[in-house]
Amino acid sequence: MKKSIKTTVLDAGGRYGLHPSWKPFTGELEYYLFEPDPVESRRLEKKYSRRADEVKVVGCAVAEDDGKMTINFFRNRAMSSSVVRNPISALFKGERLREVEIVESIETEAVSIDSFCIKNNISLDFLKLDTEGTEFHILQGAKKQLQENIFGVRCEVSFDFIFEGMPLFSDVHDFMLEHGFYLLNLDYDGRGDYQNDCVRVTGRYGILTATDAVWMKRPEFLYEKPSCFTGDVETRIMKYAAFCLTNNAGDVGIDILLKARQEHGLDFDSINHTRLYKFLNITIHKYFYELKWQPGQSLKTHQELFFQIFAKKMKEVNEFMESDELNPD
């Protein structure tokens, strides 16, 4: 039995909907959107009612263990948390201080990732965690999925004591390394928590207190076939590459696809009818089209790399612009 062609994602802290890194993805999708705020959960159910077959809203919290959890809702409900937030961020001083005032507290059901997956017979491909301080604890409750199934994790991390008693980036990173992951990148571009108006917006400024970190399973995992993982390797490779391409690591995604073809002799034709294959085909076309405007890039090299991956000619120049898929209205 082959693993589903669907890319399965669990999003803990899904307020406002799919994470921006997943919005461009047009492959087959099964996205579990956890949101414990009952008002926001109902809004999300309505928002995704037409996509209910692929976006499933779950109205409870995610934790290390199953049980109950108390969540404090701030005036800015996106900052709400089950742990104490320390007032160290310069972004929440002055007129924005009122955003972190607690306006309501509720007790809600909580479930661990491993427990949820066992109960629902789910094998996850990716995790997205943004739960305002409890991300490390949630990972503790996902060890089975991290060990056996998950390819990539996007997780909010702290570099300072933003949340009372909660682990910092170094603890999360050590944990991920121990479970066979490497750090792909950080969503930090030099713009930190600014301390006053004396910043040069074209350069670096502020203090790095928190950001999103992205980890990937080491590539050899893609070719392992333990009894608990019945997925077919071509599907794994394409899911892995797609995640890299939507998480600012296009070179890594392309490298994974090239090595699958060149070093392992894989052929993606068996899944060329899928939306996943189509997504990668279009995304890599667009990726190379953008690269061609940069100094030192070679159109010939792009064409050769595309052919090595897909065993077909890449659309270029007029063909690209005349394609409804590559240049839609």
Describe, in plain words, how this protein is organized in 3D:
Helix 6 runs antiparallel to helix 7 (250-262). The strands form two sheets. A seven-stranded mixed β-sheet has the order 3-2-1-7-8-10-9. A three-stranded mixed β-sheet has the order 4-6-5. The protein starts with 6 loop residues before the first strand and ends in a 7-residue tail after the last helix. By secondary structure, it is an alpha/beta fold. The protein has two domains: 7-217, Vaccinia Virus protein VP39 (Rossmann fold), CATH 3.40.50; 249-329, no CATH class. The chain contains ten helices and ten strands. It is 31% helix and 19% strand. Mean pLDDT is 93; it is low at 227-231. It is globular, with a radius of gyration of 21 Å.
The geometry reads as: globular
Per CATH, the superfamily of the largest domain is Vaccinia Virus protein VP39
Query: C-alpha Rg, in Å?
Result: 21 Å
CATH architecture of the largest domain: 3-Layer(aba) Sandwich
Low-confidence stretches: 227-231
Content of β-strand = 15-25%
Question: Helix/strand-derived class?
Answer: alpha/beta
The average pLDDT value, as a whole number, equals 93
